[in-house]
Design the sequence.
């Protein structure tokens, strides 16, 4: 708590002494750049989107998806403001890596992936599944053949 100042608010009741109403710590205001540089140095998170299965079937364009993420990810409520805080790159065959040096939600990345699938009219065949923390995978829906089940009965 370096730079913190201990502050108290006193309340005076009629006919009584002053009593401490609330105690808290006051922090001096930091400039936006100083606050952000401290956050950048201390926070880093990595996300991987594995689209190798649909990319190997040639129904999913990985380069277009990477460009979509570059264009649509918002930083400080502005689109196209990635800077050095978020890096997007292709890793291996069918994988995209997103490295965020600020607070960034995996649910937001999943939302953007679903939005891209809807735009490409692939949402009916593909779904986004979280396989582990920070790893999302595009999988085909499991289609059960109901007609074959009815013929067996």
Sequence:
């Amino acid at each position: 708590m370096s730079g913190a100042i201990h502050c108290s608010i006193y309340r005076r009741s009629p006919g009584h002494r002053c009593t401490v109403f609330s105690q808290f710590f006051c922090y001096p205001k930091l400039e936006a750049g100083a606050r952000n540089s401290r956050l950048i140095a201390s926070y880093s998170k990595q996300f991987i989107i594995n689209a190798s299965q649909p990319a190997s079937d040639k129904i999913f364009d990985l380069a277009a998806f990477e460009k979509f993420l570059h264009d649509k990810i918002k930083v400080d409520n502005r689109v196209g403001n990635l800077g050095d805080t978020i890096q997007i790159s292709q890793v291996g065959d069918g994988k995209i890596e997103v490295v965020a040096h600020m607070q960034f939600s995996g649910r937001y990345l999943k939302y953007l992936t679903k939005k891209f699938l809807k735009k490409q009219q692939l949402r009916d065949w593909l779904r986004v599944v979280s396989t582990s923390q920070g790893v999302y995978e595009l999988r085909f829906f499991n289609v059960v053949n109901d007609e074959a089940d009815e013929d067996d009965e």
The longest helix spans residues 106-119.
